[in-house]
Structure formats: structure tokens, C-alpha cells
Amino acid sequence: MSATTTARTNSTVSGQREKRRDADWLTQVEDATGKSCLGRVANVSLGGLLVRTANTFEPGTPVTIRFHMRLPPDSHFIESPGKVVHAEPGARMGIQFLQLQDLARRALSNYIFPSAPATTH
After folding, report:
1. Does any domain span residue 121?
2. 24, 34, 96, 112: which could join 48 in a potential S-S bond, CB 3.0 to 4.6 Å?
3. 17-51: pLDDT as tens digits
């Protein structure tokens, strides 16, 4: 499955709507004890992501998220601390980014908000 251009909005903690975009990237989620699971990023926003995985962590669990954004011709490795904010055991979990680095934020922003093609008159 490849990433699509589907963009949606989701609620943030403050009640504002945040744009998110579908994705399909392999990700690793690791808790503070070193327990980890693999999954697929289903969608991503600047605030966090939804991971499809059979092995979920409990809401409130601090985690580290690692994934590669492969968007030819570029590839970006992203690692960020996060927190599980919701989980459907055995299926998926939503993770909030806690300290997304500037380079990672720019890469995600470029993916979520792609530039419109230039028009000529």
C-alpha cells in the first residue's frame, strides 16, 4: 500500500482541528523498559501519528517512535519521544509527539502540506 493524498483533520487536546495525511511507513515504538513493537504508520499529523500494530501499549505510556519517511528522492529518519494517547488493543494506537525536532517537523510539514504545483498564465 502506498501513501495517498488523503488529508483529514483530527481533534487536538486543545480542541483545535489538525490536518493529517494517510501514510504507510514501517515504524518501531519502544517504551522506557526497552519493550518494542513494529507497526505501520496509518496517518500522521504534526501532533502525532496512528500506528497499526498487533502489539499496543497502554494509554499514557511514554514511548520513542522511529520511522523512515521514504519520499523519493528524499528519505528522512525520524525519532521522537511520544506518549500513547489512545489504543485499541491488538489493532492500533495513537501516539502524540512530545519533542519533535525541527528537521523532522519540516519533513513532516512538507509531507502533510505539499506545495501546490506552480501555474503558468
Report:
1. no
2. 96
3. 579 999 999 999 999 999 999 999 999 999 999 99
